[in-house]
Design brief:
Number of strands: 12
Distance between the termini: 38 Å
Number of helices: 5
Helix content: 10-25%
Radius of gyration: 18 Å
Largest sheet: 7 strands, mixed
Bound molecules: biotin
Oligomer: single chain
Structural class: alpha+beta
Strand content: 25-35%
Mean pLDDT: 92
Low-confidence stretches: 253-259
Strand order of the largest sheet: 1-2-3-7-6-5-4
């Protein structure tokens, strides 16, 4: 498998690049680097993660040499950190579109979808009191259907699967870093970040389900607020704000596809 050969020197984010063959998790290494004083814009990329992590305590696995698994350390003020989850999702969506000519939507808070399936996942681990965050991105670039974990095949995709042709991983790496750098400049305009998110919001107006305090709830997604909270309207007429967590699109009973 051909290893990634990212451009050398200072990238668009202005920090050094740490590119290693194997790590437990690029987020783990980026967090260590954050604590030991690495600069804003440090990028950690790995060919293989032995303990890749996803949101909500899940694991994240990707076949070696097929995906991009990278983490970016950003040093930001707390108000800028608030817009970060939305901005990163928009940046990754734009990068995929620029690279592969696909159309991307975003499932709150920050899953990037192509053709109704997840192509990229984002895990942000922030320390607002220490004014840093690690942005972890897993992007399925050249993963084939056979290489996707069997239980993920109905809901996951890759740029290769979506376009029917292999994609250049170096170009994907550059596109992600460039678009991230661009959106990092706009974090002090949360309404612009939210507007870009809304233009891709796959949940808007759709029937969704979520779990809170151990109970399952259903309602209709009513879009996001500028601070990134998801608005939901419950069947008994309440308007709720979901600040974090996981929501699920209700599946259409006839096909099992997202509704
Ligand atoms: C999710 O959708 O649950 C988020 C997945 C995030 C995966 C990436 S891969 C690079 C970085 N390192 C990790 O351990 N996780 C993130």
């Amino acid at each position: 498998m051909k290893p990634l050969a990212p451009r050398t020197g200072t990238g668009a984010l202005g920090g050094p690049l740490v590119h290693l063959d194997t790590l437990t998790s690029t987020n783990d290494r980026a967090r260590e680097l954050a604590v030991t004083g690495a600069p804003h814009g440090t990028v950690v990329a790995a060919e293989r993660q032995t303990a890749g992590r996803g949101r909500q305590g899940r694991t994240w696995s990707a076949p070696q040499g097929r995906a991009l698994t990278l983490s970016v350390l950003v040093r930001l003020e707390p108000p800028e950190l608030e817009a970060l989850p939305l901005a990163v999702a928009v940046a990754v969506a734009e990068a995929c579109e620029a690279l592969a000519g696909v159309e991307c939507t975003i499932k709150w808070p920050n899953d990037v979808w192509v053709d109704g399936r997840k192509v990229a996942g984002i895990l942000i681990e922030a320390r607002p009191t220490e004014r840093w965050a690690v942005i972890g991105i897993g992007l399925n670039v050249n993963t084939t259907t056979d290489e996707l974990e069997e239980e993920l095949r109905p809901t996951a995709t890759s740029l290769h699967i979506a376009t029917g042709r292999p994609q250049d991983r170096e170009a994907a790496f550059d596109a992600v870093v460039d678009h991230l750098a661009d959106w990092m400049q706009r974090l002090d305009h949360p309404s612009a970040v939210a507007a870009a998110f809304r233009a891709r919001d796959v949940l808007q107006g759709r029937r969704i389900a979520w779990t809170a305090a151990g109970a399952r709830h259903e309602g209709e997604a009513g879009g996001i607020e500028d601070d990134g909270a998801l608005i939901v309207f419950t069947d008994d007429g309440r308007r709720l704000r979901l600040d974090a967590g996981e929501v699920h699109l209700e599946r259409r009973p006839d096909t099992g596809a997202p509704g």
